[in-house]
Design goal:
Radius of gyration: 25 Å
Strand order of the largest sheet: 3-7-6-9-5-10
Distance between the termini: 42 Å
Structural class: alpha+beta
Oligomer: single chain
CATH topology of the largest domain: Lysozyme-like
CATH class of the largest domain: Alpha Beta
Number of strands: 21
Shape: elongated
CATH superfamily of the largest domain: Peptidoglycan recognition protein-like
Helix content: 10-25%
Number of domains: 3
Low-confidence stretches: 1-29, 35-59
Length: about 400
Amino acid sequence: MYIYHRQLAGSLSRRQERSIVLRPCEIYTHRALTQQQRLVKPIYWAERPNLGSIQEPERVGPPPDSLVADRFIAAHPGRWCGQNNNPDALTCRPLTTWPRSINRVVIHTIANPSMDAIVNRTAAKLGRGTSAHYYVYGDGTIVQMVREADVAFHARGHNLDSIGIEHADVCNDPAPYTTSLYERSAELVRDIAEFYGFEINDAAVTGHVDLGGHGDPGPYWDWEYYRMLLNWDGVTANSRPIRLVATVAGLSTIVSGWQVQRRRRISDTRCANRNDPYGARYWRSRPSATGTPAVLSLDVPEPGLYKASLWWPRVSGANSAVPVDIEVVSAFNPSLQTVAVNQRLGSGQWNDIGRPLEMTVLPARVEVRIRRDTEKSIRGQRDNDWILADAVRLLRFA
């Protein structure tokens, strides 16, 4: 059986693909083979014809187990365990069955601003002897470092039956969690689940934080959006989940009457928590009958059914009845709804507001206005309780 890496094929025309000559040598096969067959570890490289301006090395390195991943870079032998254990790995435990049973995936964040540095460190034996099977960059590039058949050291006490996936790069800021990262990671998990035959659910795809001892991937990881991607077929465009976020930190002008507050300084080795704002800065204001609202706008990219959500930090003395307008600005299907939001609850997470927004004709824009003309509606609320403006998310869910 002769195979070649999908990266190689993706850069060629059909005619050029047919002109590739393949020779057997010694690397792992693709997921096209069964897990048992992959343990034999045959390997192939491709000798390529003259492709004009396309410059790639003749030899294609060991392909990753999943066709979704881009390349394989071997972790240091001291960072994983195989069928016969590994004398270089001090924490190896004997595997009672082989191939090992894989029935879940653990989501991690590397807690380091450089994914390249972590990959290089994992390839060498520098620092702690941890590892993961896959590493997902912010641009969606996926590198495999430990074979799925082998045990990576990514979640103490939970390694024997799991695949570990690390993500770029820090969890003290939401910026590294890009659309490309979410989509490619979800594509990889769907492929792993399909291959090993386990159902994707909350128990089978979990965060490192849920296993104890660690905080990653942290509250900025959008599990709702990610699980929508996990349930997407990866093909149907009009059912693809879409996520848009706007923050007051991204506004060029500070509105009169609002005070700017900064997110606390969080070490790159630590995740944010439920007390933190989404943006690097957020606004706060006292109620005012004539005060100017904070306005966050998002352009709708594709038709569908959307919902709006707000994020705010935990602030002592927050307002329990903040009036918020959700307006669809459109020449075809405009709408306006107003809701009261209790900002004493739900800090450090996305809180859905209003009814779903049906976008049938574009162009359209959603404007969320956080108003200051609040009224006392809950016993004990003071007239001067803080109104908070931080971030809004628009999520297409149907």
